Amino acid sequence: MKIAIIGAGAIGSVVAAYLTRAGEDTTLIGRQEQVQAIREGGLHVKGVRGEGTVQVKVLSRLERDYDWVIFTVKTQDIPEAVQQNRAFLKSCCILSSQNGVQADEMLAQYFPKDALYSSIVMFGATYTKPGEVVFNFEGDWIVGKPFASNDGKVSEIAAILKKGFPVVVSDNITGMKWLKLFVNFNNCIPALTGKSMQETFADMDLCRLSILLLKEGFDIVQKSGIQAVSLPQFPAERIYGLVNMPLDQAAGIINKTLTGLSQEPLYGSILQSIMRGRTSEIDYINGQVLKMVRNPKEEAPLNARVLEMVHQVEQRKRYFTVEEIKEAFELNRQKV
Q: Do both 141 and 208 map to the same domain?
């Protein structure tokens, strides 16, 4: 079984390292600086499974046909990744792994829906520099078909991925992706501060902001009639509980959870892109709920504001101070 992973960022690198170590024929596709670093020094991974260097096959583009191609680029980078590798994507099975709920529809513009498989990554990783990543915490890799009932190919890819990660097969991968959207909803706040999840959410006012954004976004999705489906180790009731309990109580849970999530500094997926000088996936996370209302600034003012501020960080290359964030969202008035 020949596997290619397109995207040598945090998740792609961790997957390539552990599938290679498990003996799978795995090739990682990355940008030129990533390819050069891995060829010269191997792929260095440290974190919850210890520290080590894996000699991973790495290329800047696909150069042959593969049985499975796993896309680990961010959602906004899918079109470029497809175009660069299209010559060798005609007969393979495609597995998505992006945050948000749009990746499968985007890939369906290029490939037959029957060839598309979807996944949700519940483990966490941080990209530090080309050829070096941190595996912050363990978690399930959930797989399923987004446009049809699961078939034998789902079992095939699950068996491969199980060699490196705990895998769960889902009969409703799309419903689960809606819940995962809200698991990622607070990634926007470290993107404003430029700090780790642990340092950002040590501030209780920023924990309150996380809950306010979640309440607003979750309400919009509920009103649209979309049903978020429980993840294997993260029931939907947990989100329902957070959005319905008193603000300070919910903020306390965010504080305890996110400051203790990883021993190593953990940087949210949105911030990681900004730190690398690239556009982030904010439009596919918090921006997703804005696409579901007619007037975002009136119907989802908090998420509209955070989207605007993250784009400002991307453009001006300067983060906001905590006091600037508190002032922008009038957080001192939100303590109830």
A: no
Q: Report the C-alpha dihedral over residues 136, 185, 235, 76, rounded to 10 degrees.
A: -80
CB of 153 within 8 A of CB of 116? no
Domain containing 138 equals 2-171
Q: What is the pLDDT of residues 59-104, one digit of tens each?
A: 999 999 999 999 999 999 999 999 999 999 999 999 999 999 999 9
Cα separation, 16 vs 3, whole angstroms: 9
Report the alpha-carbon distance of residue 60 to residue 56 in Å, rounded: 13
Interatomic CA distance for residues 183 and 161, integer angstroms: 22
AA letter at 108? A
In a shared domain, residues 183 and 157? no
* Domain identity same for 165 and 278: no
User: Nearest Cα to 127, choosing from 212, 211, 40, 33?
Assistant: 33
Into how many domains does the chain fold? 2
pTM above 0.90, yes or no: yes
Residues in the chain: 336
Are 10 and 126 spatial neighbours (Cβ–Cβ below 8 Å)?
yes
Statement to judge: residues 273 and 201 lie in one domain? yes
